[in-house]
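Ticket #4471: structure output looks truncated?

Reporter: J.K.
Steps to reproduce: submitted the chain below (174 residues) through the standard prediction queue, then opened the result file.
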Amino acid sequence: MITRRSAALAALAVAAATLTAPSAHAADASGTSEPTAATSITRNEVLARTKFWFDRQVPYSQARTYPDPQGKRYRTDSSGYVSMALNLPAPGRNTQGLADPAITKKITKAELQIGDLLLNRSKHVVIFAGWANAAKTRYWTYEQTPPRVKNRTVPYPYFAGNGKFEPYRYRYIK
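Returned output as attached by the reporter:
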């Protein structure tokens, strides 16, 4: 027979174990919390996720959030959009956090594939959606920029006067 005292002790033991158990997440420099195990994603999945917001013409905001296909809410700025597309934890990393070597790696222009990123660490990030010309001087992009998500061609690496954009690849893309 279980007494009140043994039931209370059991509940206290469960609570103590929960409070002292190691976290399944680790805080990073961007102030977000990342899972300790990376989530892999295919290039087709990235593209499908980008189109989810594009089809809904999600407005740009650094203060608001919008759900992904599973209902997780991400910031509706450029880095939140890219975080959503890569299925990173909500509400998403900032541009500096997306450049974290644990998450992405720098690549060359010649290595760019659909689902890769062009990133200005202090300003903006876009999703590479393919070359727009044979000379590889323009490319298709999905990006979250005022007033809303856009799919357009831009000059490589990005419009003049916007700082240094470099190609990156999510480490867990297939």
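Triage note (M.O.): checked the attachment and the full token line is present. The domain at 40-170 is CATH 3.90.1720.10 (endopeptidase fold (from Nostoc punctiforme)).
Status: closed, working as intended.
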